[in-house]
Write a structure and sequence with these properties.
Blueprint (H helix, E strand, L loop, with lengths): L1 E6 L19 E2 L2 E2 H11 L4 E6 L3 H8 L8 E6 L14 H4 L4 E5 L2 E3 L1 H12 L5 E8 L7 E4 L5 E5 L4 H9 L9 E10 L3 H5 L12 H10 L4 E5 L4 E3 L3 H7 L2
Parallel strand pairs: 1-4, 1-6, 4-5, 8-12
Antiparallel strand pairs: 2-3, 6-11, 7-13, 8-11, 9-10, 9-11
Length: 247
């Protein structure tokens, strides 16, 4: 299996910390976030990587180069226009070829065994992909995922509005006291993903959304297995989160 890491964003919520560095290169315990991710994926047996760069791409490429220092192979592609996560994976289409691949954002930290668990889940059946989730009873945190009894994705709502939350409760999809599942931003896909990213239209936010491709995959009869991330999951979204990781 190959891996594609999306690391194109500047990370404006990091304020002055990303004036010169892309967010994935900010350090946690002496290493860039991106290096922690790379090492976790290596521990899962992955050796071929593609990193999508953008802001200060040179910093990432100068640090990791072709991957020899980690005993792996790294290729790069630069996202010239920051227009969402839906189109960014397409830069890796030739790299992926006919193989399955793990896709992660370059600012999400999990325990290395999470990647191994994802691969095992993917291999357990004829799935077209795996989506990861974290659970919470707070229904205002982000993209909501809904699953079948077999824990395969059946519906999703990206950043639901108050009226959408009311509709979800009326439909019985959200019940008081039950766990709400949130998109954790790490996936496995077969190359079939690209059929759906190719036809994406911009969302009301003016961006191409990867979650829109997931919705299209479900509508198209694809099977996306779910996996709850056990243990640590950190979206390094702002300076406060970064500082808490150093404590």
């Amino acid at each position: 299996m190959k891996a594609v890491i999306l690391a194109a964003g500047k990370g404006t919520r990091m304020r002055e910390l990303t004036n010169e560095l892309p967010k994935p290169m900010l350090k946690v315990n002496g290493k860039p976030i991106l290096e922690h991710i790379l090492e976790g994926l290596i521990a899962a047996g992955i050796r071929d990587f593609f990193i999508v760069t953008g802001f200060r791409a040179d910093v990432i490429e100068d640090y990791f180069q072709a991957g020899a220092g980690w005993g792996v192979r790294i290729q790069y592609g630069k996202q010239l226009v920051q227009d969402g996560t839906g189109k960014a994976p397409e830069l890796a289409r030739e790299f992926v070829g006919h193989e399955n691949f793990l896709l992660t954002y370059g600012d999400i930290l999990v325990k290395p065994e999470t990647y191994q668990q994802m691969i095992l889940r993917f291999q357990a059946s004829q799935f077209d992909g795996v989506v990861t989730v974290t659970g919470s009873e707070d229904v205002t945190k982000g993209g909501l995922f809904f699953f079948t009894e077999q824990f395969c994705l059946k519906h999703l709502v990206e950043k639901p509005s108050p009226s959408q939350l009311a509709d979800l409760k009326a439909q019985g999809l959200l019940r008081p006291g039950e766990t709400a599942w949130y998109n954790a931003g790490i996936y496995i896909f077969s190359p079939s993903l690209f059929r759906f990213t190719a036809s994406l239209q911009k969302s009301p936010r003016g961006e191409y959304e990867l979650t829109d491709a997931l919705s299209s995959m479900i509508s198209g009869g694809m099977t996306l297995a779910g996996l709850e991330i056990a243990g640590r999951w950190v979206d390094v979204r702002d300076p406060e989160v970064l500082a808490s990781l150093e404590q």
